[in-house]
């Protein structure tokens, strides 16, 4: 049970999250403004990719998986993880793995231990500045890395991505990210539908030849700038209601009124989520994004106003999307790994970044390592008045700040300080109390849980298929395969693409009576 002081301390989050928007109102780029040219004979994967609407590596769209990128922004709290879990926890990708997502984490009001848990569960942790500022100074960005490493035990090398608060970034922000060793940014918008000639819905690309998105929105971008070889941009793909290019929706689309109406209408939102997905799927398979501020769809945060209708609508969309063959829900870094090494659908079985594994740690071991059953009772409570938090790695003397992201550790009453993650150990194996790594070898480390990939909705609960070929047994009896969409239904699995439009209409029609309009909050 959360104490009332904790409630009060975490509450201010709502205030500033509601103020942020991440909305666009029209095209943020055009071919003329982009002035983009890229020499595809010189720009080669895996480290260079020209901005293009075509799938990477010359793949045909029909050989290309359909990726749905799921991201969350801002502070990590029990409320926000509950919110994400209500959409992803019950799902499986076609290889039997629960989908991973990316958390662009800012640190005010973040409960560090939950970041550790989320990371150890296989999700991507990325940088969203320490105190949530637009066009951030460098210490807001680098301090976020340091504090997440020190207080959440996230290995520095695994924090590869950045999203700017309010999507407010500049040319200098991108240069700074590249100089700090980040792999990618995901702050720009793809703001023109894939069905329009002038679409800016490019697959993720490297900035060897400059940016091609947001050319009308950010000063000094594009026409070859900034040139950042090997640094990637993952555009955020807008969704479009029935007004097309004049009806874009970017973050938290379920908070927007659609089609020029004045009130939120979940039926209309579901309709355009599906129609945008279908346009991507039947076109060049550019990814679709669900870019969320999970606090807006939390049912547990005090003062919540989200309706069950909205939650159910988002799940209905994901249910439907997962019924379309070769659809995968992924994190930003999983998408990028695939773009850099784009294997066709037929070879996804052996594609490591989409696999899932569990760290091999005895469940009875008492070790503060990001696994709830192991770390229970071992967390340090850092009772700062502004935002109290829990951590495995010892409380700092003061909350981390851009000026001091790693304050000295406060000594516990017993006189013991904790050891921060060693660079040569993985988070689930690091014992911050003893200061030792319980596993350093690749063989004892992780157990692959992925299943051979079948057609979406295939019944893999029956006779086990052969192992994945990497020496691990794919038939762990403790984790029987559950059909990836959780209900075993696969009615659309073999539906030809041409029949989709009719299906969309049918499904929406059936739901129209079920969902009422809800007010925006
Ligand atoms: C913070 O994490 C602790 C430990 O998991 C949990 O008990 C508490 O409810 C969390 N509080 C919030 C607001 O996230
Ligand atoms: C974040 O926390 C710092 C340090 O407590 C504080 O100075 C700052 O005002 C906070 N920022 C926001 C946006 O709440
Ligand atoms: C972006 O952030 C900077 C620095 O915080 C601020 O001065 C500027 O007004 C912001 N721009 C927008 C469009 O919000
Ligand atoms: C909600 O949207 C649906 C689908 O676009 C539409 O048929 C319905 O009339 C809308 N409801 C309201 C109250 O506007
Ligand atoms: C909303 O859904 C939750 C979880 O299924 C349920 O407990 C709650 O009663 C529902 N609320 C309403 C108003 O239907
Ligand atoms: C890991 O690093 C620590 C400290 O540098 C060192 O003592 C230890 O031997 C290293 N362990 C391995 C397995 O490399
Ligand atoms: C899946 O296969 C198993 C074993 O062949 C069978 O018992 C089970 O009923 C099947 N499930 C479905 C949903 O077809
Ligand atoms: Zn934010």
Shape: globular
Radius of gyration: 23 Å
Q: Which ranges are low-confidence, i.e. pLDDT below 50, for 5 or more consecutive residues?
A: 1-20, 455-521
CATH top level of the domain at 4-354 is Alpha Beta
Helix tally equals: 13
Write the layout of secondary structure elements.
Elements: H1 4-10, H2 12-19, H3 31-34, E1 66-74, H4 78-88, E2 102-105, H5 112-120, E3 124-127, H6 138-152, E4 161-162, H7 171-179, E5 184-185, E6 189-190, E7 205-207, E8 228-233, E9 236-237, E10 239-240, E11 248-249, E12 264-265, H8 266-282, E13 288-292, H9 308-323, E14 327-330, H10 332-340, E15 357-359, H11 372-375, E16 380-382, E17 389-391, E18 430-431, E19 436-437, H12 442-445, E20 446-448, H13 500-512, E21 517-518
Parallel strand pairs: 1-2, 1-13, 1-14, 2-3, 4-5, 5-8, 6-9
Antiparallel strand pairs: 7-8, 10-11, 12-21, 15-20, 16-17, 18-19
Defining key terms:
binds zinc ion; NodB homology domain-containing protein; globular; 521 residues; five-stranded parallel β-sheet; transmembrane; disordered N terminus; four-stranded mixed β-sheet; signal; TIM Barrel; binds 2-acetamido-2-deoxy-beta-D-glucopyranose; alpha/beta
Description of the molecule:
The chain is 24% helix and 13% strand. It is α/β, with parallel strands linked by helices. It has a domain at 4-354: Glycoside hydrolase/deacetylase (TIM Barrel), CATH 3.20.20.370. It is globular. The two termini are 27 Å apart. The chain binds 2-acetamido-2-deoxy-beta-D-glucopyranose (7 copies) and zinc ion (ZN). Residues 16, 108, 131-132, 386, 399, 401 line the site of one 2-acetamido-2-deoxy-beta-D-glucopyranose.
């Amino acid at each position: 049970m959360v104490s009332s002081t904790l409630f009060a301390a975490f509450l201010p989050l709502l205030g500033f999250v509601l103020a942020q928007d991440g909305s666009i109102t029209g095209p943020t780029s055009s071919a003329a403004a982009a002035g983009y040219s890229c020499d595809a004979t010189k720009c080669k994967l895996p480290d260079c990719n020209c901005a293009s609407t075509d799938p990477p590596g010359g793949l045909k769209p029909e050989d290309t998986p359909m990726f749905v990128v799921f991201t969350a922004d801002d502070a990590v709290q029990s409320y926000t993880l509950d919110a994400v879990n209500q959409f992803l926890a019950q799902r499986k990708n076609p290889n039997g793995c629960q989908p991973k997502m990316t958390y662009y984490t800012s640190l005010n009001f973040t409960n560090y231990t939950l970041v550790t848990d989320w990371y150890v569960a296989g999700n991507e942790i990325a940088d969203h500045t320490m105190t949530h500022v637009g066009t951030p100074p460098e210490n807001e960005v680098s301090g976020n890395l340091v504090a997440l490493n020190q207080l959440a035990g996230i290995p520095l090398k695994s924090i590869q991505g950045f999203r700017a608060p309010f999507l407010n970034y500049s040319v200098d922000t991108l240069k700074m990210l590249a100089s700090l060793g980040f792999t990618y940014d995901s702050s720009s918008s793809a703001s023109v539908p894939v069905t329009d000639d002038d679409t800016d819905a490019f697959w993720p690309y490297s900035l060897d030849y400059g940016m091609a998105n947001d050319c009308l929105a950010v000063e000094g971008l594009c026409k070859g700038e900034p040139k950042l070889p090997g640094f990637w941009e993952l555009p955020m793909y807008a969704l479009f209601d029935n007004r097309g290019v004049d009806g874009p929706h970017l973050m938290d689309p379920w908070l927007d009124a659609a089609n020029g109406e004045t009130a939120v209408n979940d039926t209309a939102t579901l309709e355009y989520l599906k129609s945008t997905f279908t346009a991507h799927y039947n076109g060049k398979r550019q990814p679709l994004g669900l870019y969320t501020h999970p606090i807006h769809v939390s049912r547990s945060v005090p003062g919540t106003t989200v309706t069950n209708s909205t939650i159910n609508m988002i799940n209905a969309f994901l249910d439907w999307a997962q019924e379309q063959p070769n659809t995968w829900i992924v994190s930003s870094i999983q998408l990028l790994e695939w773009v850099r090494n784009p294997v066709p659908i037929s070879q996804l079985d052996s594609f490591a970044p989409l696999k899932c594994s569990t760290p091999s740690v005895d469940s009875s071991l008492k070790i503060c390592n990001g696994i709830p059953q192991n770390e229970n009772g071992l967390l340090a409570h850092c009772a700062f008045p502004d935002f109290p938090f829990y951590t495995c790695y010892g409380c700092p003397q003061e909350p981390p700040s851009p000026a001091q992201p790693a304050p000295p550790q406060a000594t516990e009453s017993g006189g013991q300080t904790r050891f921060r993650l060693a660079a040569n150990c993985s988070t689930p194996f690091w014992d911050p109390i003893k200061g030792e790594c319980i596993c350093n070898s690749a063989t004892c480390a992780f157990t692959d849980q992925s299943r051979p990939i079948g057609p979406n909705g295939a019944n893999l609960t029956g006779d086990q298929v052969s192992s994945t070929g990497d020496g691990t047994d794919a038939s762990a009896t403790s984790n029987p395969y559950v059909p990836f969409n959780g209900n075993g239904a696969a009615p659309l699995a073999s539906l030809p693409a041409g029949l989709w439009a009719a299906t969309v209409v049918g499904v929406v029609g059936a739901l129209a009576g079920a969902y009422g309009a809800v007010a925006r909050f």
